[in-house]
Design goal:
- With 103 residues, the protein is mainly α.
- Helices cover 79% and strands 0% of the residues.
- The chain has four helices and no strands.
- The protein is elongated, with a radius of gyration of 16 Å.
- The termini are far apart.
Length: 103
């Protein structure tokens, strides 16, 4: 959503948004899979995470692309952000109340 709300000529802010997006992805992978899956199950857990992310990326790309093309670029970015934002918050909530890490 940040990309839809910033001006065109703000490279510093764009760079910050890219860094934040990368940090969020890394945190989910590290905290969600690396810490919760047992050492023996990590390869499978990362594979399942990659599959889920791939399906989500396809859906997001189709949705954002259609909105970008038929409505406006801002609409594509905003709607995608409005859908993925709550999912990210839900994921953080699930990780916050996670059970004891597997051994």
């Amino acid at each position: 959503m940040g990309f839809a709300l910033i001006g065109r000529h703000e490279p510093g802010l764009e760079a910050l948004l890219f860094v934040l997006a990368g940090a969020a992805a890394g945190a989910v992978e590290y905290a969600g899979v690396g810490q919760l899956a047992s050492r023996d199950a990590r390869r499978i857990a990362f594979g399942v995470l990659a599959a889920i992310q791939s399906v989500g990326r396809i859906a997001a790309t189709v949705t954002a692309g259609a909105l970008w093309t038929f409505v406006s670029p801002t609409a594509g970015l905003l709607v995608t952000g409005l859908v993925t934002g709550p999912l990210l918050v839900a994921g953080i909530g699930c990780l916050a109340v996670r059970p004891e890490p597997a051994r």
